[in-house]
Amino acid sequence: MTAQFGRFSWGGTGGLLSCTVSLDVTSAVAAAETSVETRTAVHDYIVRHAMYHMAESDSWNLPYVHLRFLDIFRYDATMVIVSALLLVAAVSLIWRRRRDPPRGMTALLEFYVLFIRDKICGAFIGDRLGRRLTPYFCTLFLFILTMNLLGLVPLFSAATNNINVTGALALLTLGLMLVGSVFENGLRGPLKAMAPPGVPWPLLIILVPVEFISTLGKAFALMIRLFANILAGHVIIFCLLGLVVILGYAALPAILLAIVLFFFELFVCFFQAYIFTLLSAIFIGQFVHAEH
Amino acid sequence: MTAGLALASIGAGLATVGVGLGIGRVSASAVEGIARQPEAAPKIQITMLIAAALIEGFGLFAAVICFLQI
User: Fold this and answer.
1) Which of A69, A73, A176, B34 is deepest in the core (most CB within 10 A)?
2) Contact B53 A224 (CB under 8 A)
3) How do residues B4-35 score in pLDDT, each as one tens digit?
4) pLDDT digit string (tens) for A194-203?
5) Is residue A51 part of a domain?
6) Which chain B residue is nearest to residue A279, measuring alpha carbons?
7) Confidence (pLDDT) at B59
C-alpha cells in the first residue's frame, strides 16, 4: 500500500507538469511570433529548475557530468545517503573533544544534546530508558532536519517527501515502542500495554483492538504528517514557479510569493523535525509507562 | 478527470477550514491559559504543540487524499 501511495502521488505531479508544458507549447505555436524551439528550450530550463523541488527522476546525477555508477541508486535513496554523510561530516567537523569547557560550536552541540536528554527523553520517556535513547533522538532530529533542509538547496531534493522514507522512520519509532517496553517492563511489557491487568475480561474484547489500532495509528500519523508537510510545501513552490511557464513575465508576483514561501518552508523544516522527535518520545513514553 | 480535480481542490479547501478552526481554538485557549498563569507557559506550549500537531495530521490526511485525486 505504501509503495502505491508513493507512485500515485508522483504520477499526479508528473501529470501536473505535463499539463503545464503542453498548455504552454500550444500557446507558443498559436502566437507564432517567436520561434517555438527557443521558447521551449527556455521553458525546459525553467521547468528543470522548478523540478528540483519535486524529485521526479528515477536516479540522481550531477548536473553536467553523467556518472554511470550513480544510476544504481534511486533518487530519494541518494538523498538519504547524502544527508547522512553531510550530517556525519558536519558533526565531526564541529566536535572538538579536547577542550574541557567546550567553546563555540561544540558548546552549542552540548547544549543541544542536553536539551534532548533532559527536556525530551528525560521528561517523556523516563530516566533509565531515556538516557539509553538519547543518542537515537539526537540523531533523529538532526537527520530529519538535514533531509528537510536539503530540499531547499539547488540540485538536491528532500528525501522526506517520499512516503517510504518517512514510513521507515515511523517504523523505527514503532519498533522502539515495543523494544523499550520489553526493556523496561520485561517480556510481557507490550502485552500489559495492550491489555492492562485488572480490567474485567468483557471490557478487554473492546479495549485490546482499540489499543492495537491506536498504537499502529500513531506510527501511521507520524509517517503521513512529515511526508505531507514537506510534500505540500514543495508542491506549492513548484506550482508558483510553474506559473512562469504559463504566464511568462506576468508571473513576477508569483516568484516573489515563492521566495516568501521558501522562508516559510525553512521554518517548517525545523518545526516538523522537532515535532517528529517530540511525538516519537511521547508515544514511546506512553507505551512504556502504560499504567499512567 | 477535470471534475475530479475540481472536487479534490474543493475537498482540500474544506479540510483546511476544519483544521484552521481546530488549531485556532487550541492556540486561543493556550494564549488565555498563558496569560492567566505565565509560569505554566512551557507546559502549556508543549501540550498545545502536541494537540496542534495531531489536528494538523488529520488535515494532512485529507490533503494527501486530495493529492491522490490529482
Assistant:
1) A176
2) no
3) 778 888 888 888 898 999 999 999 999 999 99
4) 877 777 888 8
5) no
6) B50
7) 83
CB contact under 8 A, A278 and B57: no
pLDDT at A31: 47
Cα torsion A241, A243, A249, A252: sign: negative
Tell me whether residue A159 is in a domain: yes
CA distance B62 to B38: 35
Contacts 24+ apart (CB under 8 A), A135-143: A136/A176, A137/A277, A137/A280, A137/A281, A138/A112, A138/A113, A139/A87, A140/A169, A140/A172, A140/A276, A140/A277, A140/A280, A141/A116, A141/A273, A141/A274, A141/A276, A141/A277, A142/A87, A142/A91, A142/A273, A143/A83, A143/A84, A143/A87
Looking at the domain assignment, is residue A189 inside a domain?
yes
Residue A248 DSSP class:
G
Contact A290, A188 (CB under 8 A): no
Regions of chain A with pLDDT less than 50? 1-33
For A224, which of B50, B60, B69 is closest by C-beta distance? B60
Contact B68 A275 (CB under 8 A): no
Name the nearest CA neighbour of A222 among A278, A270, A287, A266: A278
Please tell me the total count of domains within chain A: 1
Chain A CB within 8 Å of residue B65 CB: no
Q: Please state the pTM of the whole predicted model.
A: 0.78
Asked if the structure places residue A67 within a domain, the reply is no
Of B53, B63, B68, the CB nearest to A8: B68
Give the domain extent around A144: 76-288
- Determine contact: A228 vs chain B, CB below 8 A: yes
Report the complex ipTM.
Answer: 0.75
